[in-house]
């Protein structure tokens, strides 16, 4: 085992404090990563506060990890020392069940392993996340990061990025489609950038007129203020796809007619 620095909370009402944690010795299929950046996702805040009632303390959050490979196991073929890589919300699964073989590791029949707050099959206890100096991850859950990107800005792609990219790809959004993105937050701004890059006519739908300028700077072709009934009615039955990123309970009916 290797002892490394991390930031952990000992209880839901305790602040994050510097601590020492253990990382496992490298296994044959493992990648060791020196962490350069880790995003702060709101899920990290929910988990630390135990808003979902399943927090395991001490908790080390962080699942938007960017770093450099420092060592690889003897069976690793996809990564080498010095590579710039990323790690998202999972770090392990059985790799043998039907779900894993169909690239659906989150439904692993033997239980997938989350980056933190999950049962640790190697060291016992629970997994500890990316608010730390180093992490050891099974190679299938390590992603290559293009070096032409702004490294410090890549981290949110590991959560907010894939959360919005996945449905756009799944539903085959393409050039010529009219796409609405509801809400301009951590997810919404990613949705705008992706939809615009895919060539879609991209429309930001928001309650806030103040966000219109930011939406257009990010790539939106136009903005609809959802509180304006006339604007909403003008766009009825005109969208090919709508991505709703509002993170709280709300009435979806005003958007369905679009």
Write structural notes for this entry.
The chain has helices at residues 42-48, 98-101, 151-154, 160-170, 188-197, 212-218, 229-234, 253-256; strands spanning 2-8, 17-23, 30-38, 65-72, 84-87, 90-92, 113-114, 134-138, 143-144, 178-182, 201-206, 222-225, 241-244. The chain has 8 helices and 13 strands. It has 2 domains: 2-154, Medium-chain alcohol dehydrogenases, catalytic domain (Quinone Oxidoreductase, Chain A, domain 1); 160-256, NAD(P)-binding Rossmann-like Domain (Rossmann fold), CATH 3.40.50. With 258 residues, the chain is of the alpha/beta class. 21% of the residues lie in helices and 26% in strands. The strands form 4 sheets. It has a 5-stranded antiparallel sheet with strand order 8-3-4-5-9. It has a 4-stranded parallel sheet with strand order 12-11-10-13. The longest helix is centred in the middle third of the chain and has 11 residues, at 160-170. α4 (160-170) packs across α5 (188-197).
- Strands in their spatial order, largest beta sheet: 8-3-4-5-9
Helix content: 10-25%
CATH fold-level assignment of the largest domain: Quinone Oxidoreductase, Chain A, domain 1
Instruction: Enumerate how many helices there are, as a single number.
Output: 8
Level-2 CATH architecture of the largest domain: Alpha-Beta Complex
Gross morphology is elongated
* pLDDT < 50 runs, ≥5 residues: none
Distance between the termini: 55 Å
């Amino acid at each position: 085992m290797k002892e490394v620095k991390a930031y952990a909370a000992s209880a839901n009402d305790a602040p994050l404090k510097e601590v020492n944690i253990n990382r496992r010795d490298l296994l044959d299929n493992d990648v060791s990563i020196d962490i350069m950046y880790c995003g702060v996702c709101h899920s990290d805040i929910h988990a630390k506060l135990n808003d979902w009632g399943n927090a395991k303390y001490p908790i080390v959050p962080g699942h938007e990890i960017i770093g450099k490979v420092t060592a690889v196991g003897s069976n690793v073929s996809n990564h080498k020392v010095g590579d710039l890589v990323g790690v998202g919300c999972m770090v392990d699964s059985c790799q043998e069940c039907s779900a894993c073989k169909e690239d659906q590791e989150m439904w692993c029949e033997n239980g997938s392993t989350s980056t933190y707050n999950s049962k640790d099959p190697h060291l016992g206890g629970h997994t500890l996340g990316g608010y730390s100096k180093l992490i050891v991850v099974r190679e299938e859950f390590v992603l290559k990061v293009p070096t032409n990107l702004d490294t410090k800005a890549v981290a949110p792609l590991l959560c907010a990025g894939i959360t919005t990219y996945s449905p756009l790809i799944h539903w085959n959004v393409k050039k010529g489609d009219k796409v609405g993105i509801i809400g301009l937050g951590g997810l919404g701004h990613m949705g705008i950038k992706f939809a615009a890059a895919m060539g879609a006519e991209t429309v930001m739908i928001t309650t806030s007129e103040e966000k219109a300028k930011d939406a257009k700077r990010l790539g939106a072709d136009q903005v609809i203020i959802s509180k304006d009934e006339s604007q909403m009615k003008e766009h009825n039955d005109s969208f090919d796809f709508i991505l709703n990123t509002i993170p709280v309970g709300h009435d979806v009916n005003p958007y369905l007619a679009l």
